[in-house]
């Protein structure tokens, strides 16, 4: 029996695939390579080049590989861009999830771990976000992830689906040098790419009500995240009931300036970040507790900020990007 990983050729998905292998579970990858890389799929892991909007392809993959559960990571993940592309976002994230669930029901697959997002919270007016913090998404992306959670809930009511949704903020680092974050919108790649081009990384606003004036967020290591996805899969496969949602949060957060300082230290490239105006809608601080996930999913922050930066830097250099000495 095996577990289907949608989006398994992507940055997070490829780490989940390796975590499944390490835990003795057989992964099967479905990915349309719109943002992933086939070379991220380990040798010997079945790979199906298909979109999650293709129900027939999903059903075939499930039947051909004896799939018992799904870890659903595929989707359009760019919150800012989703404002300009709402229909595309809903097609990929809502219709895609509905199609996947249809394929699961048609083939008798009864367990799913859903990659949700802290974007479901919007801008919460609390110092520490918990699973009980009200959701108020502020982008089509955040809305689509919340609808995905609702779809799982409603299918569970109708068909007894075993499920849980994992919400998290900024995923960084690398668990192995051949896997890197290639997103054009995430902070670490943006900083590294600016340095590669001889430019200056940018901080958007340094006058927030935080200790150093820059925004504070959760940054979690991708390998820690992948581990808890696999623990959730194991528990669902064993018939255990999990909470409907879990936050994979750090509990304290890291500021943008702290990240810049760590990048300077790790890379040895001396730079002073450019201070740009605030971006509209950026809250000063969004940090979540991971206590519930620590209780049920063996969630822990096993990597500090320096190791997050160092592992991401090694993987980015291994990708063949040239940086100044």
TrEMBL record:
UniProt cofactor(s): NAD(+)
UniProt-recorded Gene Ontology molecular function terms: UDP-glucose 4-epimerase activity
Keywords from the named record: Carbohydrate metabolism, Isomerase, NAD
One of the protein's GO biological processes: galactose catabolic process via UDP-galactose, Leloir pathway
Residues in NAD-dependent epimerase/dehydratase domain copies: 3-249
One Pfam family in the UniProt entry: Epimerase
Catalytic activity, reaction form: UDP-alpha-D-glucose = UDP-alpha-D-galactose
E.C. numbers: 5.1.3.2
Pathway: Carbohydrate metabolism; galactose metabolism
Stored InterPro entries: Epimerase_deHydtase (IPR001509), NAD(P)-bd_dom_sf (IPR036291), UDP_G4E (IPR005886)
Family: Belongs to the NAD(P)-dependent epimerase/dehydratase family.
Protein name per UniProt: UDP-glucose 4-epimerase
Upper taxonomic lineage: Bacteria, Bacillati, Actinomycetota, Actinomycetes, Propionibacteriales
């Amino acid at each position: 029996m095996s577990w289907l990983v949608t989006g398994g050729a992507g940055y997070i998905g490829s780490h989940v695939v390796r975590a499944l292998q390490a835990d003795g579970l057989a992964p099967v990858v479905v990915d349309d390579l719109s943002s992933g890389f086939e070379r991220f799929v380990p040798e010997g892991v079945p790979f199906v080049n298909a979109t999650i909007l293709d129900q027939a392809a999903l059903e075939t993959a499930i039947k051909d590989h004896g799939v018992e559960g799904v870890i659903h990571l595929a989707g359009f993940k760019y919150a800012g861009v989703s404002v300009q592309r709402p229909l595309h976002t809903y097609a990929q994230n809502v219709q895609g999830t509905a199609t996947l669930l249809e394929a699961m029901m048609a083939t008798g697959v009864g367990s799913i771990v859903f990659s949700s997002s802290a974007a479901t919270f919007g801008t919460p007016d609390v110092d520490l976000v918990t699973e009980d913090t009200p959701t108020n998404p502020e982008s089509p992306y955040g809305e689509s992830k919340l609808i995905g959670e609702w779809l799982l809930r409603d299918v569970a009511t109708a068909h007894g689906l075993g499920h849980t949704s994992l919400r998290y903020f900024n995923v960084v680092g690398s668990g192995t040098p051949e896997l890197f974050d290639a997103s054009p919108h995430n902070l670490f790649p943006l900083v590294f790419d600016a340095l590669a081009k001889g430019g200056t990384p940018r901080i958007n606003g340094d006058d927030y009500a935080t200790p150093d004036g820059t925004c504070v967020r959760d940054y979690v290591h991708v390998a820690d995240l992948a581990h808890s996805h696999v623990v959730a899969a194991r528990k669902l496969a064993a018939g255990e009931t999990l909470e409907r949602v879990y936050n994979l949060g750090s509990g304290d957060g890291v500021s943008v300036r702290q990240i810049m300082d760590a990048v300077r230290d790790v890379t040895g490239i001396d730079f002073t970040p450019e201070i740009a105006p605030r971006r509209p809608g950026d809250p000063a601080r969004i940090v979540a507790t991971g206590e519930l996930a620590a209780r049920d999913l063996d969630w822990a922050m096993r990597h500090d900020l320096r190791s997050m930066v160092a592992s991401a830097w090694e993987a980015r250099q291994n990708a063949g990007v040239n940086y100044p000495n």
